[in-house]
Write a structure and sequence with these properties.
hpI Integrase, Chain A, 5% strand, mainly alpha, 2 domains, single chain, DNA polymerase, domain 1, 3-stranded antiparallel sheet, 13 helices, globular
């Protein structure tokens, strides 16, 4: 980088673009990189002429407020977090006197009503009964597998017959398929996403037969360019067929997790099965379910205590 370009009078959105190039390019997943680039585009749109040295607390709060006019609070929070590290670096370089992100107030538009993200056990049974599981691999087989394992869509796409250990009833998850940029096999989302998922005996029997004779190291769900809208439409059709709430392929992952939690499986076990980086992720994602289970636990404790006599 040319030191002449790095001055406190450089336009902030240009500095941020350069910061992404130096500190993020090649160090983060492409999907995360796209989010940083989108943030940079919003900077160019909202503060096209703001210089680095002009970024004080007031200017930064005004930037957040402008962004919040178009986005929900959580999205504004993400925007703030993506900017903060670059701004701290500018403070360290002496181009900004003091941290303008300190005590920032995060606002945002009222969230849209949430669509149902998961199915209950009765609804899952109805969905799976409507699948047309033929002798060849298709999207119905993926719907079944994600419902049974809670895998991410990109993880399921990357599966090859070699990933199945039928003798030990397990599935080895160690890669993803880059369906967005069409770059083939990619690493998993994080280290803990590399995992073995135990399979029930029925799924083992079904996939033993289904994968017989297929190339061991080739993804069996991928045939040319893949769009996630294709399996989502197939899933939507099944949901409509049996009169249950319409969810997405990712909603099947939520469904799998919620059924396990309601069945009494520990948060730690669910986190490992989903490949979450920590139990905190699981707790945040399924907070409403965990709260409901805690209420049931309280009722159980009270009933147990009331049965005790002195």
């Amino acid at each position: 980088m040319n030191n002449n370009q790095n001055t406190k009078h450089e336009l902030f959105h240009e500095y941020y673009a350069r910061w992404i190039e130096i500190y993020k390019e090649g160090a983060i997943r492409q999907v995360t990189m796209q989010k940083y680039l989108m943030t940079q585009q919003w900077l160019a749109r909202l503060i096209p002429s703001l210089e680095i040295c002009q970024l004080n607390r007031t200017a930064y709060q005004q930037l957040l407020n402008k962004y919040a006019e178009f986005h929900e609070r959580q999205t504004t929070m993400d925007f703030h977090h993506q900017l903060k590290a670059a701004i701290i670096d500018a403070v360290d370089e002496g181009w900004i006197d003091r941290d303008p992100t300190r005590k920032a107030i995060i606002k945002g538009r009222t969230p849209r009503p949430q669509k149902q993200k998961f199915l209950n056990q009765f609804e899952v049974h109805k969905l799976l009964a409507d699948l047309k599981l033929g002798p060849n691999v298709d999207w119905d087989w993926m719907i079944l597998l994600i419902a049974k394992t809670g895998m991410r869509f990109s993880e399921a796409l990357a599966l090859t017959p070699a990933d199945f250990d039928f003798m030990h009833q397990s599935l080895n998850v160690n890669k993803t398929w880059d369906y967005k940029n069409n770059q083939g096999f990619m690493p998993t989302k994080n280290f803990t996403s590399n995992r073995k998922i135990q399979l029930d005996w029925q799924t083992v029997i079904q996939f033993t037969e289904l994968l017989k004779g297929l190339p061991e190291d080739e993804p069996f769900f991928v045939h040319g360019k893949v769009w996630n809208s294709t399996p989502n439409k197939r899933l939507e059709r099944h949901c409509k067929n049996v009169g249950i709430p319409i969810i997405t392929i990712h909603g099947l992952r939520h469904t799998h997790a919620s059924l396990l939690l309601f069945a009494g499986v520990s948060i730690a076990s669910v986190a490992r099965r989903l490949g979450h980086a920590s139990m905190t992720t699981t707790q945040k994602t399924y907070l409403h379910i965990i709260a409901e289970l805690e209420n049931k636990d309280i009722d159980l404790v009270m009933r147990s205590l009331s049965g005790l006599s002195s």
